[in-house]
Amino acid sequence: MNQRLAILLRISFAFLDLMVLNVVFLISQYMFDKHIQADERIQYTYFWFFCNLAWLILSWGAGIYRDSYIYSFEKFSRHTMHAFAYFIGIVMLYLAFDKQADLSRLFVISVLTSFAISLLINRFLHLAVHHLFQHKDHITRKVMIIGYNERAKKLATYLEKEPVKTEIIGFCEEERNVTELTHYPIISGLDNVIETSRQHKVTEIFSTISPEQQTGIYSLINQADQACIRFRIIPDLNQFIRKPVYIDYLNDMPVLSLRKEPLDDVANRIKKRLYDLFVSSLIILLVLSWLIPIISILIWLESRGPIFFIQQRSGKNGETFNCIKFRSMKVNKDAHEKQAVKNDSRITRMGKFMRKTNIDELPQFFNVWMSDMSIVGPRPHMLKHTDDYSKLIKQYMIRHFLKPGITGWAQINGCRGETRTVKDMNDRVQYDLWYLENWSLWLDTRIILMTGFNMVRGEKNAY
Protein backbone atom coordinates (compact mmCIF):
# COMPACT_ATOMS: atom_id res chain seq x y z
CA MET A 1 0.00 0.00 0.00
CA ASN A 2 0.99 3.66 -0.35
CA GLN A 3 3.64 2.92 -2.99
CA ARG A 4 3.52 6.44 -4.44
CA LEU A 5 4.06 7.92 -0.99
CA ALA A 6 6.97 5.53 -0.38
CA ILE A 7 8.60 6.43 -3.71
CA LEU A 8 8.16 10.14 -3.01
CA LEU A 9 9.73 9.81 0.44
CA ARG A 10 12.62 7.71 -0.86
CA ILE A 11 13.46 10.21 -3.60
CA SER A 12 13.03 13.17 -1.24
CA PHE A 13 15.36 11.86 1.48
CA ALA A 14 17.95 10.58 -1.01
CA PHE A 15 18.00 13.99 -2.68
CA LEU A 16 18.11 15.79 0.68
CA ASP A 17 21.08 13.72 1.92
CA LEU A 18 23.01 14.30 -1.30
CA MET A 19 22.16 17.99 -1.22
CA VAL A 20 23.46 18.50 2.35
CA LEU A 21 26.68 16.67 1.42
CA ASN A 22 27.29 19.17 -1.37
CA VAL A 23 26.26 22.15 0.75
CA VAL A 24 28.62 21.00 3.51
CA PHE A 25 31.43 20.61 0.99
CA LEU A 26 30.88 24.06 -0.55
CA ILE A 27 30.71 25.77 2.86
CA SER A 28 33.86 24.01 4.05
CA GLN A 29 35.69 24.91 0.84
CA TYR A 30 34.62 28.54 1.25
CA MET A 31 35.87 28.60 4.85
CA PHE A 32 39.24 27.09 3.90
CA ASP A 33 39.56 28.94 0.60
CA LYS A 34 42.44 31.14 1.79
CA HIS A 35 44.48 28.06 2.73
CA ILE A 36 43.99 26.24 -0.59
CA GLN A 37 46.67 26.84 -3.21
CA ALA A 38 45.63 27.29 -6.83
CA ASP A 39 47.39 24.10 -7.96
CA GLU A 40 45.66 22.10 -5.18
CA ARG A 41 42.09 22.99 -6.16
CA ILE A 42 41.84 20.14 -8.65
CA GLN A 43 42.49 17.64 -5.83
CA TYR A 44 39.63 19.15 -3.81
CA THR A 45 37.39 18.82 -6.88
CA TYR A 46 38.36 15.16 -7.25
CA PHE A 47 37.61 14.62 -3.55
CA TRP A 48 34.22 16.31 -3.91
CA PHE A 49 33.35 14.06 -6.87
CA PHE A 50 34.57 10.95 -5.03
CA CYS A 51 32.49 11.75 -1.92
CA ASN A 52 29.32 12.13 -4.01
CA LEU A 53 29.95 8.89 -5.87
CA ALA A 54 30.87 6.99 -2.69
CA TRP A 55 27.74 8.11 -0.83
CA LEU A 56 25.50 7.26 -3.80
CA ILE A 57 26.95 3.75 -4.03
CA LEU A 58 26.99 3.09 -0.29
CA SER A 59 23.49 4.46 0.39
CA TRP A 60 22.12 2.46 -2.53
CA GLY A 61 24.07 -0.65 -1.50
CA ALA A 62 22.95 -0.37 2.13
CA GLY A 63 19.37 0.15 0.95
CA ILE A 64 18.75 2.85 3.55
CA TYR A 65 15.92 4.32 1.46
CA ARG A 66 14.03 1.07 0.95
CA ASP A 67 10.34 0.88 1.91
CA SER A 68 10.92 -1.32 4.97
CA TYR A 69 13.21 1.34 6.51
CA ILE A 70 11.76 4.64 5.30
CA TYR A 71 8.73 4.44 7.63
CA SER A 72 10.73 3.52 10.75
CA PHE A 73 12.84 6.21 12.42
CA GLU A 74 14.91 3.60 14.29
CA LYS A 75 15.66 1.43 11.23
CA PHE A 76 16.23 4.45 8.99
CA SER A 77 18.67 6.01 11.46
CA ARG A 78 20.49 2.74 12.23
CA HIS A 79 21.11 1.85 8.58
CA THR A 80 22.13 5.45 7.84
CA MET A 81 24.71 5.17 10.63
CA HIS A 82 26.05 1.93 9.15
CA ALA A 83 26.30 3.49 5.67
CA PHE A 84 28.07 6.55 7.11
CA ALA A 85 30.60 4.32 8.92
CA TYR A 86 31.42 2.62 5.61
CA PHE A 87 31.55 6.06 3.99
CA ILE A 88 34.24 7.18 6.45
CA GLY A 89 36.18 3.98 5.76
CA ILE A 90 36.04 4.50 1.99
CA VAL A 91 37.14 8.14 2.35
CA MET A 92 40.11 7.06 4.52
CA LEU A 93 41.10 4.46 1.92
CA TYR A 94 40.88 7.12 -0.80
CA LEU A 95 43.16 9.47 1.16
CA ALA A 96 45.58 6.65 1.98
CA PHE A 97 45.98 5.35 -1.56
CA ASP A 98 45.78 8.61 -3.52
CA LYS A 99 49.20 10.05 -2.81
CA GLN A 100 48.41 13.18 -4.84
CA ALA A 101 45.42 14.04 -2.65
CA ASP A 102 47.21 16.61 -0.50
CA LEU A 103 44.10 17.77 1.37
CA SER A 104 43.90 19.69 4.61
CA ARG A 105 43.13 17.26 7.45
CA LEU A 106 41.04 19.93 9.11
CA PHE A 107 39.06 20.34 5.88
CA VAL A 108 38.36 16.60 5.67
CA ILE A 109 37.35 16.41 9.34
CA SER A 110 35.11 19.45 8.84
CA VAL A 111 33.34 17.85 5.86
CA LEU A 112 32.82 14.48 7.57
CA THR A 113 31.67 15.97 10.87
CA SER A 114 29.30 18.44 9.25
CA PHE A 115 27.87 15.74 6.99
CA ALA A 116 27.25 13.50 10.02
CA ILE A 117 25.43 16.31 11.82
CA SER A 118 23.40 17.10 8.70
CA LEU A 119 22.36 13.45 8.34
CA LEU A 120 21.26 13.48 11.97
CA ILE A 121 19.18 16.61 11.33
CA ASN A 122 17.66 14.95 8.25
CA ARG A 123 16.67 11.92 10.31
CA PHE A 124 14.89 14.11 12.87
CA LEU A 125 13.18 15.79 9.91
CA HIS A 126 12.09 12.29 8.89
CA LEU A 127 10.66 11.83 12.40
CA ALA A 128 8.73 15.09 12.06
CA VAL A 129 7.32 14.04 8.66
CA HIS A 130 6.28 10.67 10.10
CA HIS A 131 4.59 12.44 13.01
CA LEU A 132 2.75 14.66 10.49
CA PHE A 133 1.42 11.62 8.64
CA GLN A 134 0.17 10.12 11.88
CA HIS A 135 -1.69 13.21 13.12
CA LYS A 136 -3.12 15.02 10.09
CA ASP A 137 -6.78 14.16 9.75
CA HIS A 138 -7.00 15.05 6.05
CA ILE A 139 -4.60 12.23 5.14
CA THR A 140 -6.23 9.65 7.42
CA ARG A 141 -7.48 6.49 5.73
CA LYS A 142 -10.91 5.35 6.89
CA VAL A 143 -11.28 1.63 6.32
CA MET A 144 -14.14 -0.83 6.59
CA ILE A 145 -13.66 -4.60 6.46
CA ILE A 146 -16.26 -6.93 4.92
CA GLY A 147 -16.44 -10.27 6.68
CA TYR A 148 -15.37 -11.37 10.14
CA ASN A 149 -12.97 -14.30 10.03
CA GLU A 150 -9.31 -15.09 10.74
CA ARG A 151 -8.12 -13.13 7.69
CA ALA A 152 -10.24 -10.13 8.69
CA LYS A 153 -8.74 -10.11 12.20
CA LYS A 154 -5.21 -10.44 10.83
CA LEU A 155 -5.91 -7.69 8.29
CA ALA A 156 -7.08 -5.35 11.07
CA THR A 157 -3.83 -6.02 12.96
CA TYR A 158 -1.74 -5.21 9.87
CA LEU A 159 -3.71 -2.04 9.10
CA GLU A 160 -3.10 -0.79 12.65
CA LYS A 161 0.65 -0.86 11.89
CA GLU A 162 0.39 1.05 8.60
CA PRO A 163 2.72 4.11 8.49
CA VAL A 164 -0.09 6.42 7.33
CA LYS A 165 -2.73 6.85 10.02
CA THR A 166 -5.47 4.31 9.37
CA GLU A 167 -8.83 4.38 11.16
CA ILE A 168 -10.70 1.08 11.08
CA ILE A 169 -14.42 1.92 11.26
CA GLY A 170 -15.49 -1.68 11.84
CA PHE A 171 -16.59 -4.95 10.24
CA CYS A 172 -19.56 -5.67 7.97
CA GLU A 173 -20.91 -9.12 8.73
CA GLU A 174 -24.22 -10.82 9.50
CA GLU A 175 -24.63 -10.86 13.29
CA ARG A 176 -25.52 -14.56 13.30
CA ASN A 177 -22.00 -15.34 11.98
CA VAL A 178 -20.24 -13.52 14.85
CA THR A 179 -19.84 -15.64 17.98
CA GLU A 180 -17.21 -13.63 19.91
CA LEU A 181 -16.46 -10.14 21.18
CA THR A 182 -14.85 -8.16 18.36
CA HIS A 183 -12.04 -5.60 18.68
CA TYR A 184 -13.92 -3.27 16.29
CA PRO A 185 -17.73 -2.97 16.08
CA ILE A 186 -19.94 -4.86 13.66
CA ILE A 187 -21.47 -1.79 11.99
CA SER A 188 -23.54 -3.33 9.22
CA GLY A 189 -24.74 -6.46 7.52
CA LEU A 190 -23.71 -7.31 3.96
CA ASP A 191 -26.86 -5.72 2.49
CA ASN A 192 -26.06 -2.20 3.67
CA VAL A 193 -22.30 -1.89 3.07
CA ILE A 194 -22.19 1.11 0.74
CA GLU A 195 -24.72 3.22 2.63
CA THR A 196 -22.88 2.58 5.91
CA SER A 197 -19.59 3.47 4.21
CA ARG A 198 -21.02 6.81 3.07
CA GLN A 199 -22.29 7.60 6.57
CA HIS A 200 -18.84 7.01 8.11
CA LYS A 201 -16.98 8.66 5.18
CA VAL A 202 -15.04 5.46 4.46
CA THR A 203 -12.30 5.82 1.81
CA GLU A 204 -11.42 2.12 1.37
CA ILE A 205 -13.30 -1.15 1.71
CA PHE A 206 -11.41 -4.42 2.22
CA SER A 207 -13.36 -7.59 1.54
CA THR A 208 -12.21 -10.88 3.04
CA ILE A 209 -15.13 -12.55 1.26
CA SER A 210 -14.32 -13.32 -2.38
CA PRO A 211 -16.87 -12.95 -5.22
CA GLU A 212 -16.74 -16.73 -5.68
CA GLN A 213 -17.97 -17.20 -2.11
CA GLN A 214 -20.76 -14.65 -2.46
CA THR A 215 -21.79 -13.27 -5.84
CA GLY A 216 -23.21 -10.11 -4.25
CA ILE A 217 -19.60 -8.88 -3.87
CA TYR A 218 -19.59 -8.06 -7.61
CA SER A 219 -22.50 -5.67 -7.06
CA LEU A 220 -20.70 -4.08 -4.09
CA ILE A 221 -17.62 -3.49 -6.25
CA ASN A 222 -19.69 -1.57 -8.81
CA GLN A 223 -21.52 0.41 -6.11
CA ALA A 224 -18.20 1.30 -4.42
CA ASP A 225 -16.86 2.63 -7.74
CA GLN A 226 -19.97 4.82 -8.12
CA ALA A 227 -19.48 6.12 -4.55
CA CYS A 228 -15.75 6.85 -5.18
CA ILE A 229 -14.71 4.31 -2.55
CA ARG A 230 -11.74 2.08 -3.30
CA PHE A 231 -12.62 -1.62 -3.08
CA ARG A 232 -9.95 -4.22 -2.33
CA ILE A 233 -10.26 -8.00 -2.06
CA ILE A 234 -8.13 -10.14 0.27
CA PRO A 235 -8.14 -13.62 -1.33
CA ASP A 236 -7.95 -16.79 0.75
CA LEU A 237 -5.06 -18.58 -0.94
CA ASN A 238 -5.18 -21.36 1.66
CA GLN A 239 -7.76 -22.95 -0.60
CA PHE A 240 -4.96 -23.58 -3.10
CA ILE A 241 -1.71 -23.79 -1.12
CA ARG A 242 -1.01 -23.83 2.61
CA LYS A 243 2.22 -21.81 2.75
CA PRO A 244 3.28 -18.20 2.06
CA VAL A 245 3.28 -17.31 -1.63
CA TYR A 246 4.40 -14.35 -3.75
CA ILE A 247 2.14 -12.92 -6.43
CA ASP A 248 3.35 -11.60 -9.78
CA TYR A 249 1.50 -10.90 -13.01
CA LEU A 250 1.95 -12.14 -16.55
CA ASN A 251 -0.07 -9.45 -18.33
CA ASP A 252 -3.45 -9.77 -16.56
CA MET A 253 -2.81 -13.30 -15.27
CA PRO A 254 -1.76 -13.65 -11.59
CA VAL A 255 1.16 -16.03 -11.02
CA LEU A 256 1.84 -17.51 -7.57
CA SER A 257 5.44 -18.32 -6.60
CA LEU A 258 6.52 -20.30 -3.55
CA ARG A 259 9.40 -17.93 -2.80
CA LYS A 260 10.79 -14.54 -3.71
CA GLU A 261 13.91 -14.81 -5.90
CA PRO A 262 15.63 -11.49 -6.69
CA LEU A 263 18.05 -13.29 -9.03
CA ASP A 264 15.16 -14.59 -11.10
CA ASP A 265 15.14 -11.06 -12.56
CA VAL A 266 17.43 -10.75 -15.60
CA ALA A 267 18.63 -7.26 -14.61
CA ASN A 268 19.75 -8.54 -11.19
CA ARG A 269 21.57 -11.49 -12.77
CA ILE A 270 23.43 -9.07 -15.06
CA LYS A 271 24.39 -6.88 -12.06
CA LYS A 272 25.69 -9.89 -10.15
CA ARG A 273 27.62 -11.19 -13.16
CA LEU A 274 29.30 -7.81 -13.80
CA TYR A 275 30.12 -7.58 -10.10
CA ASP A 276 31.66 -11.08 -10.21
CA LEU A 277 33.69 -10.30 -13.33
CA PHE A 278 35.03 -7.06 -11.88
CA VAL A 279 36.07 -8.49 -8.50
CA SER A 280 37.42 -11.79 -9.88
CA SER A 281 39.47 -9.95 -12.52
CA LEU A 282 41.03 -7.79 -9.80
CA ILE A 283 41.87 -10.84 -7.66
CA ILE A 284 43.34 -12.76 -10.60
CA LEU A 285 45.48 -9.83 -11.78
CA LEU A 286 46.53 -8.35 -8.44
CA VAL A 287 46.75 -11.42 -6.19
CA LEU A 288 46.78 -14.76 -8.00
CA SER A 289 49.31 -13.58 -10.60
CA TRP A 290 52.08 -13.63 -7.95
CA LEU A 291 50.51 -15.91 -5.30
CA ILE A 292 50.11 -18.99 -7.52
CA PRO A 293 53.88 -19.39 -8.21
CA ILE A 294 54.70 -19.02 -4.49
CA ILE A 295 52.00 -21.43 -3.30
CA SER A 296 52.86 -23.88 -6.08
CA ILE A 297 56.49 -24.11 -4.93
CA LEU A 298 55.49 -24.56 -1.26
CA ILE A 299 52.95 -27.30 -2.10
CA TRP A 300 55.37 -29.14 -4.37
CA LEU A 301 58.25 -29.02 -1.87
CA GLU A 302 56.18 -30.70 0.85
CA SER A 303 54.15 -33.14 -1.24
CA ARG A 304 55.06 -34.06 -4.81
CA GLY A 305 52.09 -34.13 -7.12
CA PRO A 306 49.70 -31.75 -8.89
CA ILE A 307 49.48 -28.17 -7.58
CA PHE A 308 45.75 -27.89 -8.16
CA PHE A 309 43.05 -30.24 -6.95
CA ILE A 310 40.24 -30.40 -9.51
CA GLN A 311 37.02 -32.07 -8.44
CA GLN A 312 33.61 -32.40 -10.04
CA ARG A 313 30.96 -30.67 -7.94
CA SER A 314 27.28 -29.82 -8.20
CA GLY A 315 26.56 -26.46 -9.82
CA LYS A 316 23.56 -24.42 -10.86
CA ASN A 317 20.48 -26.48 -11.78
CA GLY A 318 22.31 -29.61 -10.58
CA GLU A 319 24.82 -29.54 -13.46
CA THR A 320 28.38 -30.62 -12.66
CA PHE A 321 31.52 -28.52 -13.15
CA ASN A 322 35.22 -28.82 -12.37
CA CYS A 323 35.92 -26.95 -9.12
CA ILE A 324 39.54 -25.75 -8.83
CA LYS A 325 41.41 -25.57 -5.51
CA PHE A 326 45.00 -25.56 -4.34
CA ARG A 327 45.83 -29.15 -3.32
CA SER A 328 45.87 -29.27 0.48
CA MET A 329 46.10 -33.06 0.91
CA LYS A 330 48.49 -35.78 -0.03
CA VAL A 331 47.39 -37.54 -3.19
CA ASN A 332 44.86 -40.18 -2.05
CA LYS A 333 42.14 -42.37 -3.52
CA ASP A 334 39.38 -41.10 -1.16
CA ALA A 335 39.71 -37.41 -2.09
CA HIS A 336 36.54 -37.34 -4.22
CA GLU A 337 34.28 -39.09 -1.70
CA LYS A 338 35.56 -38.66 1.85
CA GLN A 339 35.16 -35.25 3.49
CA ALA A 340 38.04 -33.74 5.45
CA VAL A 341 37.73 -34.26 9.22
CA LYS A 342 39.52 -32.79 12.21
CA ASN A 343 43.15 -33.98 12.48
CA ASP A 344 42.85 -35.63 9.06
CA SER A 345 46.14 -37.39 8.32
CA ARG A 346 45.78 -36.67 4.60
CA ILE A 347 46.14 -32.89 5.09
CA THR A 348 49.68 -31.55 4.67
CA ARG A 349 51.19 -28.85 6.90
CA MET A 350 50.92 -26.33 4.07
CA GLY A 351 47.39 -27.60 3.41
CA LYS A 352 46.40 -27.04 7.04
CA PHE A 353 47.52 -23.41 6.80
CA MET A 354 45.71 -22.89 3.48
CA ARG A 355 42.47 -24.42 4.72
CA LYS A 356 42.58 -22.38 7.94
CA THR A 357 42.96 -19.14 5.99
CA ASN A 358 40.79 -20.18 2.97
CA ILE A 359 43.76 -19.66 0.61
CA ASP A 360 43.04 -23.08 -0.94
CA GLU A 361 39.77 -21.67 -2.32
CA LEU A 362 41.35 -18.73 -4.20
CA PRO A 363 41.79 -20.56 -7.56
CA GLN A 364 37.99 -20.71 -7.71
CA PHE A 365 38.11 -17.10 -8.92
CA PHE A 366 38.97 -18.75 -12.26
CA ASN A 367 35.70 -20.70 -11.93
CA VAL A 368 33.93 -17.38 -11.33
CA TRP A 369 35.57 -15.83 -14.36
CA MET A 370 34.48 -18.83 -16.47
CA SER A 371 30.89 -18.44 -15.12
CA ASP A 372 30.81 -21.85 -13.38
CA MET A 373 30.60 -20.12 -9.99
CA SER A 374 29.80 -16.80 -8.36
CA ILE A 375 31.88 -15.11 -5.66
CA VAL A 376 28.96 -15.42 -3.22
CA GLY A 377 26.47 -18.25 -3.25
CA PRO A 378 25.81 -21.70 -1.76
CA ARG A 379 29.05 -23.70 -1.44
CA PRO A 380 29.29 -26.46 -4.08
CA HIS A 381 29.28 -29.98 -2.64
CA MET A 382 30.82 -33.22 -3.83
CA LEU A 383 28.56 -35.21 -6.13
CA LYS A 384 28.21 -37.99 -3.56
CA HIS A 385 27.07 -35.51 -0.91
CA THR A 386 24.53 -34.00 -3.29
CA ASP A 387 23.15 -37.45 -4.05
CA ASP A 388 23.00 -38.44 -0.36
CA TYR A 389 21.61 -35.24 1.15
CA SER A 390 19.03 -34.61 -1.60
CA LYS A 391 17.31 -37.79 -0.33
CA LEU A 392 17.50 -36.74 3.32
CA ILE A 393 16.70 -32.99 3.20
CA LYS A 394 13.48 -31.99 1.43
CA GLN A 395 14.63 -28.49 0.33
CA TYR A 396 18.23 -29.42 -0.43
CA MET A 397 18.09 -29.09 -4.24
CA ILE A 398 16.52 -25.59 -4.08
CA ARG A 399 19.99 -24.19 -3.29
CA HIS A 400 20.99 -25.25 -6.81
CA PHE A 401 18.74 -22.57 -8.30
CA LEU A 402 21.82 -20.33 -7.83
CA LYS A 403 25.39 -20.57 -9.01
CA PRO A 404 27.61 -21.99 -6.26
CA GLY A 405 29.89 -19.50 -4.51
CA ILE A 406 33.43 -19.28 -3.17
CA THR A 407 31.88 -18.06 0.07
CA GLY A 408 28.31 -17.71 1.25
CA TRP A 409 25.84 -16.62 3.91
CA ALA A 410 26.08 -20.03 5.60
CA GLN A 411 29.88 -19.85 5.80
CA ILE A 412 30.08 -16.44 7.50
CA ASN A 413 27.48 -17.68 10.00
CA GLY A 414 29.74 -20.52 11.09
CA CYS A 415 28.37 -23.33 8.90
CA ARG A 416 31.54 -24.61 7.29
CA GLY A 417 33.91 -27.54 7.61
CA GLU A 418 32.80 -31.08 8.35
CA THR A 419 29.07 -31.90 8.41
CA ARG A 420 28.77 -34.52 11.14
CA THR A 421 24.97 -34.78 11.15
CA VAL A 422 22.04 -34.21 8.83
CA LYS A 423 21.11 -31.22 11.02
CA ASP A 424 24.49 -29.60 10.23
CA MET A 425 23.70 -29.79 6.51
CA ASN A 426 20.09 -28.71 7.02
CA ASP A 427 21.32 -25.58 8.83
CA ARG A 428 23.48 -24.73 5.81
CA VAL A 429 20.57 -25.27 3.47
CA GLN A 430 18.37 -22.89 5.48
CA TYR A 431 21.05 -20.17 5.32
CA ASP A 432 21.40 -20.76 1.56
CA LEU A 433 17.64 -20.45 1.05
CA TRP A 434 17.60 -17.20 3.05
CA TYR A 435 20.33 -15.85 0.77
CA LEU A 436 18.38 -16.93 -2.32
CA GLU A 437 15.32 -14.96 -1.14
CA ASN A 438 17.19 -11.88 0.14
CA TRP A 439 20.01 -11.37 -2.38
CA SER A 440 21.37 -7.90 -3.05
CA LEU A 441 24.74 -6.55 -4.18
CA TRP A 442 25.11 -4.98 -0.74
CA LEU A 443 24.58 -8.41 0.88
CA ASP A 444 27.25 -9.87 -1.43
CA THR A 445 29.66 -7.10 -0.43
CA ARG A 446 28.93 -7.66 3.25
CA ILE A 447 29.57 -11.41 2.92
CA ILE A 448 32.85 -10.79 1.07
CA LEU A 449 34.05 -8.35 3.75
CA MET A 450 33.09 -10.76 6.55
CA THR A 451 34.88 -13.60 4.75
CA GLY A 452 38.03 -11.47 4.51
CA PHE A 453 37.77 -10.70 8.23
CA ASN A 454 37.38 -14.41 9.04
CA MET A 455 40.40 -15.27 6.87
CA VAL A 456 42.56 -12.93 8.96
CA ARG A 457 41.06 -14.08 12.25
CA GLY A 458 40.98 -17.78 11.39
CA GLU A 459 38.02 -20.13 11.91
CA LYS A 460 37.73 -23.03 14.34
CA ASN A 461 35.73 -25.15 11.85
CA ALA A 462 38.31 -24.72 9.08
CA TYR A 463 40.45 -27.87 8.94
Question: TL;DR of this structure?
Answer:
With 463 residues, the chain is an alpha/beta fold. Helix content is 52%, strand content 12%.
Largest sheet: 5 strands, parallel
Low-confidence stretches: none
Average pLDDT figure: 83
Distance between the termini: 50 Å
Overall radius of gyration: 29 Å
Shape: flat
Query: Domains counted in the coordinates: how many?
Result: 3
Q: Helix/strand-derived class?
A: alpha/beta
SSE ordering? HHHHHEHEEHEHEEEHEEHHEHEHHH
Note the total helix count: 15
The strands making up the biggest β-sheet line up spatially as 3-2-1-4-5
Total beta strand runs: 11
Residues in β-strands, percent: 5-15%
**How helix-rich are the residues, as a percent range?**
40-55%
List keywords for this structure.
463 residues; alpha/beta; Rossmann fold; 5-stranded parallel beta sheet; two-stranded antiparallel sheet; 11 strands; 52% helix; 12% strand
Give structural notes:
The chain has 463 residues and is α/β, with parallel strands linked by helices. The protein folds into three domains: 133 residues, no CATH class; 101 residues, NAD(P)-binding Rossmann-like Domain (Rossmann fold, 3-Layer(aba) Sandwich), CATH 3.40.50; 192 residues, no CATH class. Helix content is 52%, strand content 12%. The protein contains 15 helices and eleven strands. A five-stranded parallel beta sheet has the order 3-2-1-4-5, sandwiched between helices. A two-stranded antiparallel sheet has the order 6-7. The chain has a two-stranded antiparallel ribbon with strand order 8-9. Strand 6 and strand 7 form a beta hairpin. Helix 1 runs antiparallel to helix 2. The longest helix is centred in the middle third of the chain and has 37 residues. The chain is flat and about 90 Å long. The protein starts with a helix and ends in a 6-residue tail after the last helix. The model has no long low-confidence stretch (mean pLDDT 83).
